[in-house]
Structures are given as structure tokens and as C-alpha cells.
Amino acid sequence: MAEYDPQTIEAKWQKVWEERRAFEADPDPAQRKYYVLEMLPYPSGTLHMGHMRNYTIGDAVARYKRMRGFNVLHPMGWDAFGLPAENAAIERGIHPREWTLANIAEFKRVCYRFGFSYDWRSEISTCEPEYYRWNQWFFLRMLERDLAYRKRSRLNWCPKCCTVLANEQVVDGCCWRHPDTPVEAKEIEQWFLRITRYSDELLDDMAQLEAGWPERVLVMQQNWIGKSRGARVRFGVAGNAAQGIEVFTTRIDTVYGATAIILAPEHPLVDGLVAGVPEHAEIAAQIARMRQKVLRPADLGTAEKEGIFLRRHAVNPFSGEKLPIWVGNFVLMEYGAGAVMCVPAHDQRDFEFCRKYGLPIRVVVQNPAGTLDAKTMQEAYDQHQEGKLVDSGAYTGLSVARAIERMAADAKARGFGEAQTTYRLKDWGISRQRYWGTPIPVMYCDRCGLVPVPDEQLPVVLPPGVKLTGQGQSPLASVPEFVNVKCAKCGGPARRETDTMDTFVDSSWYFYRYTDPHNAKAPFDREIVRYWFPIDQYIGGIVHAILHLLYSRFFCKVMRDLGLVNHAEPVTRLFCQGTVLMGGTAMSKSSGNVVGAIDMAEKVGCDTARLYTLFAAPPEKDMEWSEQSVEGCSRFLQRMFRIVTRHAERLRGVAVGNPASANAATASAKEKILLRKAHQTLRRVTQDFEARWHFNTSVALIMELVNELQAQEPLEQNARPAVVKEVIELMALMLAPMAPHIAEELWEMLGHSGGLGRARWPDYQPQLAAEEQVEVVIQVNGRVRGKILVEAGLPEDELAKRAQADARIAQVVAGRRIVKCIVVPDKLVNLVVESL
RNA sequence: GCGGAAGUGGCGGAACUGGCAGACGCGCAGGACUUAGGAUCCUGUGGCCGCAAGGCCGUGGGGGUUCAACUCCCUCCUUCCGCACCA
Questions:
Q1: What is the rounded CA–CA span in Å between residue A768 and residue A702?
Q2: Which nucleotide in the DNA or RNA is closest to residue A306, CA to C1'?
Q3: Nucleotides of chain B within 7 Å of a protein C-beta?
Q4: What is the CA A433 to C1' B45 distance in angstroms?
Q5: How long is the CA A679 to C1' B44 vector, in angstroms?
Q6: CA-to-C1' span, A353 to B1 (A)
Q7: Does the C-beta of A349 come within 7 A of strand B?
Q8: What is the ipTM for the molecules in this complex?
Q9: Closest nucleotide to A353: CA versus each C1'
């Protein structure tokens, strides 16, 4: 008898699929569409099983949806620009393109070897001019709409990457790619995309995503945008009527309780304020020291608050009171106004600060009990809801909410402030001082200034022969043929921009390009996109919760404003799969705990590897890879193959479908057991695919079904061929999304030609799944004391009677009075009896 | 500090809406077939007591609601993740 040989079977079916173009999908209004997408991979080095989990989940869903009759778009492509390629190229003395293309070829080989059902016609590579010219095109559109601008500012510089990073790429004060390398502050002129223009929309549209996105992703994005409503208030400077200090506060109602003004160390007014004071030299030195002391962000929350009194005073515009001006290490220049009013009674940070430096504490919001006392309070009283204002001039007696409203309005009327909303979100810095990325399509002309490259001159192609040093200057600057260009406006000499774009620009819109990958006139055809979008199911790691997913949402909104798409959100449902661990840590090349994808395919076959990936844990959870446990899945497929092989011969010509099912009434007891098990399995596996996505239980259920088949051996004696065939077919069909090659092989062995491509997901038949007899548990006082087998659907009183009639139960009850009898039909009877 | 998720046998994990805790798989033990078995098949496998029938205990700890709690409520502990001087 032929043994299960995954190598042969898998190669055979991969070839068949390819020849039949089994996974190609085009827009077809007559069909329901389903766009399922796994996050675009960065093609680097070898692929391990950690990578494969993402694609295995996506492929199972894609195949299931096809069997459900959907027109399924399931594309794949390459996030091909980026630093690792450039660094690897420098190390090896080759061109980044060479390294990248080799990796793509390898990635593709692995995808093919795993039988993933991609439509390869959609394949894109972001490093090809055909693709990145549209990055440039989008950039120019943004430039036209003032969504792209150039600004000199303090930026995050990674000394290892030798480039600046976006705020989103800084994790715990370190480079996201180099967790041990703190970013440095560097003043550089660079390009920004004005994502902040969409702050409110990015926040508000999350309401549309609540149903389909993981809550934690939405929470992370919400935190990142960090909207805060408050007011800007201008305090005067004593002795200088012309000067003012602006502060941002969310609690303008507490302004009468302010006992100091605190500036960030870098605040531009600081130097001027201390210039004339007697102890000038000493104070300036202290400030210089504070400025130099860079705190690691992780320590910020716990660091000791420090302040320096500037020997100058501000004037509270509401009360006219003079307040000392301080510099404080806990005030951030980047947020709000870079200055705060210090209200110790109602802000915990201010409370600590004033305690340390002996500044007065003054209660201006009293609690409902009226017990707050500045002399005795141990912490700030910062309740927004319940307090009433006291000692606050004309505002005394107002509620906090009312006071905030009225005081902001008054500040505006009197010209020293107004309501203001601030955000934590900053504009997206996209310039990178590296080579392997999209050239930014602008030039600088001495006469005309900044000149955008005209559309018809796109793409600005990355020149091939560039010396890569990794030394932190844009490599493109050293290529005169690239840099020197004729001004597009005046024809005079001009210089090209030599920075390239952050690769997150590439991945912000790639899923649109998949639908129309070779369009030379536009980034994509609007009608095609209208058919496929929004993406029905996006699958990827939680790492991209902010970065990629926020940028993509931003791009989508820009594209909508450009009239390119008619939706505001690109992704309806998002699924974040868990990490694959090995020995408790994430599988990764740098940790040295990888299980190679190709190695697995060669050793046990990709069907086994895929099945195990789905079986070992629910997909959203982290899973531990265990070579030993993989064996279990391998054995399962072998067993299944053997059972089918044993019976294929006599089943091949048998007609299936309705005959067997329709005959269920006349089926033997053993046949009924098989059919019942099969349809119960089908019901639950279908549920798993539709609702829960718990493929681990789906696999377990199919294993149980195979166990049942085995238990009914010899099958030829226990069931008619039509019944056996129906059960085996159901089994093969249910397995098809998860282990597609063996499923095809079994399907063919059963006598089907044409492959599973035409097979539909079977409908489960409730009457076949229904149990005729059920085991009912009998409890006495909540403890299981017996079990009886009864016909399904017995009425409650009958069930209660039978339970009490049971000999063993009668013995346990032993004449005690039954106080209560709880019956759960078809499940359980609980007799509550008097205690002895 | 704030917010979120989770804690179940030796291990990965099941238990859908409060109704038999431990499905399925790994591992382990015993057996069958075999020259052989790291192949295959069968049986057993939460702990304790017992020859057995059976009994008691058991889902991080403690308390509660209920005829009945892994599931609901309170409280504490642990782990992981996110945010963190955001004014």
C-alpha cells in the first residue's frame, strides 16, 4: 500500500494549481468579493516558521472563502526598500538591489513550497520604479495641498542606522531596530507629511473600526494621537508689559490656585528672562546643566522633579497676582506651550514640586464635603467631576465644568487666551539620509527655490552606481549625475533633493496597487479599487499597531480627498496573530532559535507544518513551537491517508451526496454514528471559520472524526460504501483550507477529477447531526451520582421520573425527601435532597 | 502609577449562552505484531485513599452569589502587553 509521501503530493498539486491558475481573481460584479491580505513582508534572509504563521492563517481563510463561493483576492508582494538591505549590501560589497532580489526569490520559493494560494499576477516590489514612482506622485499631490512641507527641527537620530527616525519609530527612547541604541537629538531640515491635519478624523473614524479591529490596537492609536482639550492662557511678565508667557492647561478653572509658572528648560524665553538678574551667571549655569541632562523616557515618570527659580515674576491675568517664574525638568517643550501654570492643590506633579521647593499651596476647588485644607492635604485634589470653585474671584461657586467654559470665554474676550485642543501626534518626518529608498521628487534652484519634479518627469530613478558608506550623509549627494539637474521651471542649474523616503510611505498604500499592479497612468484604476475595497480581512503582527496601520489610515484619507477612493477606512477587519516562540522567546534569527520553513517542508511536508501551526494554539495567542508535537500532526495526516487508501478502491465509483444522507432513516446504527459525527464536526468547524477563528479546535474535531472512522473498522462491514464515502469526503473538504495538498490528493483518490478548486464547502445537515440518544447526568446535591442514556428531547417531568427511577440514584437518595429537582433537557438532572 | 489581556494535568491546549473540568495532541506507562522498532495498532494516564465497587480533593489564593461556578461578583497575588511627568 502506498504510504503518504508529502514531497510528491505537494509538488504535484502545486504544479496543478499553477497550471490551472487556480488563485487568479479579477473584478466580477456578479460575484461577492472577499479581499484577504497578510501584511507585506520585508524580504530578509531565511524564512522561519514564525513568518509562516501569518500566511498560514491568511491562506486558510482565503481557501475557505473560495469554497464558500467568494471571489477572493489574495495577493503577495515585497516591502523591498529599507535599511537592512543597504547595510547588508555594504557588508557584502554588493548592491542592495542584488541582495533584495535574491531574498525575494527565496521568499517566493518558500511561499510556493508552502502552497499559499496567492494570485502572483498581483505581485509588487516597492523597490521597482514602476511602484515607487507613485510614492513620488503621492508626495507631489501632498505638496500641492500643503500636506508635505520642509522644516528644520530637532529630530530623533539613530547613530546605528545613520538616519533620522519618525516619532513612531522610537521605542523607549531607542531605535525600533536597535533596542539598545538610544536615539540622539539632531537638528536637521527635513520633509514632513502633515498627518496632524487628520488627527480628529483618525480619532473619530475609529468608531467605524470598533467591530472589526482588536480593541488594544484602537486604544494604542488613541493614546498615540493623544487628544487633549484645554486652554491657552497668556501670563504677563512683571516689569515688562510687552512680554508674555503662554501656558497650556486643561484646568483653567484652577487658575486662581496657581502659585508659580514653570517653563521647559529649552523654552525660548528662558535666556532672556534671566539675562538681567543679579545671580545671572549661577542660574544660567544651572539651566545649562538641566538642559544637558537627558532623561531616558523610561525614567521620566519616576525622576525627581527639579526646578530653578529665575528670580523673575509673572502676572496672573485673572487675579493680577504676581507669581514666581521657574524652570522645571518635568515640563516638556514639545507638548502644549512648553510652559505650565503650577497649581499644587489640584495637580499631583505641581503638588510634589511645590512641596519640594516650599511654594504655597492654595485650594481653589473644594470637595463636596468641604474638607480640603491646604495645610493638611497629602496629595493634589484633581477630581474634575464633583468640586466647586472657592477663592476664585467672580468664578467662586461655579462647578468645574461651568468654570472651564466661562473662564476660557472670558480669557478670549479679554485677549489673553482661548480654548485650545492639543495632540500628542506630531507630523510624520519622512526624510531618510540613506540610499535604498524612494527619492524625494523635488529640486532646489537658486533662482526659483524649491521646485517639484513635474509629473511627466517621474519616476526620479535611483541611480545604480552609488558608493554606500553608511556614514550618515545621503549617499545620493555624492552622485553628481543625480544631483545636478536642470531646473524644471527656469531651465537653470538646480540640485535634486538627496534624501529618500521612509519606507513606511511605500507600505501605506501598497494594498491598492495589488489590485492594478502595472498601471502606468495612475497608481491604480478607481473602478477596480471600488470593487475590491475595503479590505475585508487584514492579518498581521501587533508590532504595526501604530506605525503602519496609522500611516495607512492617513494615506487612505488623503486619497479620498484626492478623489481616488470613496471610502475613509481601508481595512474593515484586522486580525493580529500571536508570536511563534521557541524556548519561550520569539523565534528570530538574531535569537538563534529558528525553525526553517523550507527545512520543515522537506522534513514533514508543508501540510503538516501548516496544520501544526493552526493546531498548537488559537491564532491570536503566542504559540510555542515543539518539534515533538509536530509529529502528532504528521501522524494524523498519515493515518488519514492510510484509511482513505484502504477504501479508495471500492469507493471510487460510488455515488455520494443525497443518496446516503436521504437514506439516513434506513441507515444502520453504526452508519448513523459515522454520519452524525461527520455532520456534528462540520457544524462546529464551519462555526470556527465563520465566527471564532479557533482553528486549533477545528483540527481537533477533524482528528476526532478520523478516530471515529478508525473505531468503526472494518468499515466495509460496518457501513455501506455511500456512507463511508460521504464521511470521508466531508473530512477531506474540511481539511482543504488547512492542509490543501493532502486534501486534493484524497479528493482525487475518491474518484473526483477537476480538483478541489470547484468543490464547495458542504452544508451541514441538522437532521443528520442530531443525536437520537443522549447521556444525561444525574446529580444529587450538585454531585454527579449517575448517568442514564435516554431518547433525545424527553420532556422535563419524564426525565425527572427516569432519573429517580435509576437504581443507583435511589440508593444514594435512600428515602430522603427531594426538596427540589432541576432539569436541563438532554443534559442533566439535579436532585436536591435533605441532608441526613 | 494608569489601562488591557491572561493564570486549567508533566507540556500545548479544550469546555460555544452558569450544567459531567481536562476534548484533541505531545509526553509517559503497559500490551499486541515483529529478527528488530524511534513504524503501526490497542489499553491506561489530574492528585490522594482503596484489591475493587467507590469516595474525597482539584481550574493562581481567599471570600461570596447559585440547586450547580474554569465561567458571575468582591478581594488579593503573579505573568505578559500597552501608556506613562501630555499640564
A1: 17
A2: B85
A3: 1, 3-4, 11-16, 19-21, 23-27, 39-42, 55-56, 67-69, 81-87
A4: 63
A5: 30
A6: 17
A7: yes
A8: 0.94
A9: B85
The predicted-structure confidence for A739-791, as pLDDT tens digits, reads as follows 999 999 999 999 998 899 889 999 988 888 888 888 889 988 888 888 888 88
Q: Which of residues 733-762 of A touch strand B (CB under 7 A)?
A: none
Contact, A639 CB vs strand B, < 7 Å: yes
What is the full DSSP assignment across A233-285? EEEEETTEEEEEEEEEES-GGGGGG--EEEE-TT-TTHHHHHTTSTTHHHHHH
Cell numbers 526659483 correspond to A448
**Residue A830: CB less than 7 A from any atom in strand B:** yes
Residue type, A193: L
Q: Which residues of A320-340 are buried (b: 16+ CB within 10 A; e: fewer)?
A: eeebbbbbbbbbeeebbbbbb
CB under 8 Å to A36, separation ≥6 — which residues? A58, A61, A62, A65, A72, A73, A74, A535, A536, A537, A539
Strand, helix or coil at A833? Answer: strand
Nucleotide with smallest C1' distance to residue A334 CA: B86
Q: Are A14 and A112 within 8 A, CB to CB?
A: yes
Q: How does DSSP classify residue A193?
A: E
Question: What is the per-residue pLDDT across A543-577, written as a single tens digit (0 to 9) for each?
Answer: 888 889 999 999 999 999 999 999 999 999 999 99
Strand B lies under 7 A from the Cβ of residue A628:
yes
The three cell numbers locating residue A314: 509673572
Question: From the Cβ of A700, is strand B under 7 Å away?
Answer: yes
pLDDT in tens, A238-250: 988 888 999 999 9
Helix crossing, A627-651 with A606-615: angle to 10°? 120
Q: In what order do the strands lie in the sheet with A623-624?
A: A585-586, A580-582, A623-624
* The pLDDT of residue A814: 76
